[in-house]
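queue> pop job 88
queue> type: inverse folding (structure -> sequence)
queue> payload:
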């Protein structure tokens, strides 16, 4: 950033590091040991779809790749694509709950395919879902435009467990780059896979 950028208050956005997603498996171990939350085996990538054959082809290729990666003749656990009420597309990958590394690899492959084909600006977030024995839900959400993670703990209706989210922030502060601006902890109501 140059002197004039500083003088006029212009900032450059943080460049997301998709490899930061590979910190999630060790963070999941820390989370389980400290709070009892375990991975559900579900994760998703949210992006704004664009019209056109190229983008559609990339979606199909990613879905085919992830279904083939399970090594099962029938494609194993399905990869689902859905659209939410805000117009965002969610690609949901499912694994066994103890396969966090494989899940993160799948999510990274989706992100990389979109970035490599010039659709990086359409990426919104990636999330990995967790539950505890009391059936409380939790997601660790990665924000592309910030290059940071934050916890999201939905309750019934459109309420969230802010105290739990702050507790998770404290627990994972050493494992993940946590978003410090709490106003950026956007709710992802009804996120597929959560």
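queue> result:
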């Amino acid at each position: 950033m140059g002197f004039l950028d500083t003088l006029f208050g212009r900032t450059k956005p943080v460049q997301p590091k998709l490899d930061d997603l590979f910190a999630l498996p060790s963070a999941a171990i820390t989370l389980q040991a400290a709070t009892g939350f375990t991975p559900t085996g579900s994760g998703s990538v949210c992006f704004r779809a664009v019209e056109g054959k190229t983008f559609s082809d990339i979606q199909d290729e990613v879905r085919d790749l992830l279904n083939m990666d399970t090594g099962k003749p029938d494609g194993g656990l399905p990869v689902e694509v859905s659209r939410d009420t805000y117009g965002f597309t969610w690609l949901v990958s499912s694994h066994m709950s103890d396969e966090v590394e494989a899940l993160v690899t799948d999510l990274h492959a989706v992100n990389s395919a979109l970035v490599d084909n010039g659709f990086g600006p359409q990426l919104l977030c990636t999330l990995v879902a967790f539950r505890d024995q009391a059936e409380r839900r939790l997601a660790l959400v990665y924000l592309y435009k910030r290059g940071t993670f934050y916890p999201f703990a939905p309750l019934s209706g459109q309420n969230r467990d802010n105290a739990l989210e702050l507790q998770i922030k404290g627990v994972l502060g050493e494992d993940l780059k946590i978003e410090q601006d709490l106003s950026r902890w956007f709710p992802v109501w009804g996120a597929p896979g959560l």
